[in-house]
Design goal:
Helices cover about 40% and strands about 15% of the residues. It is an alpha/beta fold and about 450 residues long. It folds into 3 domains: about 210 residues, Rossmann fold (3-Layer(aba) Sandwich), CATH 3.40.50; about 110 residues, Ubiquitin-like (UB roll) (Roll); about 100 residues, NADH-ubiquinone oxidoreductase 51kDa subunit, iron-sulphur binding domain (de novo design (two linked rop proteins), Up-down Bundle), CATH 1.20.1440.230. Strands 8-7-13-9-10 form a 5-stranded mixed β-sheet, covered by helices on one side. A 4-stranded parallel β-sheet has the order 3-2-1-4, sandwiched between helices. Helix 15 packs antiparallel against helix 16.
């Protein structure tokens, strides 16, 4: 069975002859929606975004219209800022950079509409420093947009002024957290802020009201303005509206980036139909459905989820891993999350001890060190897992790993603690026998080595 993508944001990406310059973008209708939005007015755009039920595409899935509603442009006396979070750092995630590299003006138009809707006069595009070419592309695209009258003073004779600046981050994963990003943008160490009181909508950039949205989220605003919030909400499923960009990597025949309505396909359809199945004829073993910080799901397991029946009533339903819908609610009900859309597929040759040790090494390197449970605990996780993976594991290590992870999650200023702890909790929970077997084998090997040395 063939599954056709519903390309909304990726409509022109990889299309033959499509280039990233402004002339090509305008030839395909670029900046026409901006004209419509300026005529609608800011409050009308905000209302359409709320009707669309768009959820943030950066990881948490928080409703965008609700986030915007925390700021009232008509009442605040301080400047309002908007920051585009282009610090795509989650392992397994590579969708936002496709937009930046191949269709930058779509992002800029979405940003202008979002800024206009929220009374923003100065916005920042915070990009990961490793995206060197992406930074150059964005600078060029912003210059083109300004030269064409879509940025700067009196945009399209509307009386609205806006400037957008690109800011290159320092390549730290923690800068993907919105308050850590704000601290970095202010020129400080990227230590996340305590919430409350430092909610960005109240005390954000320079202690002013600030909106932080992901690249994919802001691109969606353009399409919501174009088709209307009600029409957009009909794409996907209730509470999971619009399309979702999915990046599939790992042990599949056709890894890559795809776009489907939220919940329109199952995890099994994505892996076996869209991505051509598991490579080399192997079997599916596990999937991380939303970037490396999402909890791993094991093939063959059955999950209880709640879904609406034909009468609209919530009913319990048991589904296999392969039958889980690719949307926020279904993956959350299965104990994981849609996260950043990074789907990492593992076949039956993968060593779960090695996989987890690799993930924990990344998080130990990326901890900002502000919170003691994270600064110390994440490093302990890495050391213990390295010990187990290298053949020196102890019988008590699985219990010790779980205890350390449990003492990190929920005890840090930002969600980095959970990002480091959840993989450990889930890998141990789903594949405990592999950790125990590795330790038993190591112990037996060590015993044999000791005996051979004494003879």
């Amino acid at each position: 069975m063939a599954f056709s993508e519903h390309r909304l944001i990726f409509k022109n990406i990889d299309a033959p002859g499509y280039t990233r310059d402004i002339a090509c973008y305008q030839k395909h209708g670029g900046y026409e929606i901006l004209k419509k939005g300026l005529a609608m007015g800011g409050p009308a755009i905000r209302e359409e975004v709320k009707k669309s039920q768009l959820r943030g595409r950066g990881g948490a899935g928080f409703p965008t219209g609700t986030k915007w509603s925390f700021i009232d442009p008509a009442k605040t006396t301080k400047p309002i800022y908007l920051i585009c979070n282009a610090d795509e750092s989650e392992p397994g995630t590579f969708k936002d950079r496709q937009i930046i590299y191949k269709d930058p003006h779509q992002l800029i138009e979405g940003m202008i509409l979002s800024c206009f809707a929220n009374g923003v006069k100065l916005a920042y595009l915070y990009i990961r420093c490793e995206f060197t070419e992406g930074w150059k592309i964005l600078e060029k695209a912003l210059a083109e947009a300004k030269a064409a009258g879509f940025l700067g003073k009196n945009i399209l004779q509307s009386g609205y002024d806006l400037e957008i600046h690109v800011h290159r981050g320092a390549g730290a994963y923690i800068c993907g957290e919105e308050t850590g990003l704000i601290e970095s943008l202010e020129g400080k160490r990227a230590y996340p802020r305590i919430k409350p009181p430092y909610f960005p909508a109240v005390l954000g950039l320079y202690m002013c009201p600030t909106i932080v949205n992901n690249v994919e989220t802001l691109c969606n605003v353009k399409h919501i303005v174009e088709m209307g919030g009600d029409a957009y909400a009909k794409i996907g499923r209730p509470n999971n509206t619009g399309t979702r960009l999915l990046c599939v990597s790992g042990d599949v025949v056709k890894p890559g980036y795809y776009e489907f309505p939220c919940g329109a396909i199952t995890l099994g359809q994505l892996i076996f139909n869209v991505c051509g199945g598991i490579r080399n004829g192997r079997r599916l073993k596990a999937v991380i459905p939303g970037g490396s910080s999402a909890k791993v799901l094991r093939a063959g397991e059955v999950y209880k989820i709640k879904e609406k029946d034909s009468q609209g009533n919530l009913v319990d339903r048991e589904v296999k891993l392969e039958d889980l819908r690719m949307d926020f609610d279904s993956l959350a009900a299965a104990g994981s999350m849609a996260g950043s859309g990074g789907v990492i597929v593992m076949d039956d040759t993968r060593d779960m001890v090695e996989c987890l040790a690799n993930i924990s090494t990344f998080y130990a390197h990326e901890s900002c060190g502000q919170c003691t449970p994270c600064r110390e605990g994440v490093l302990w996780l890495k050391k213990i897992l390295s010990r187990v993976a290298e053949g020196h594991g102890r019988d008590e290590d699985p219990a010790l790993l779980k205890d350390v992870a449990d003492r990190i999650a929920g005890r840090t200023i930002c969600a980095f603690g959970e990002a480091a702890a959840w993989p450990v909790q889930s890998f141990l929970g789903k594949f405990k026998e592999e950790f125990q077997l590795r330790i038993r084998r190591n112990g037996a090997a060590a015993k044999r080595d000791t005996i051979s040395l004494t003879h």
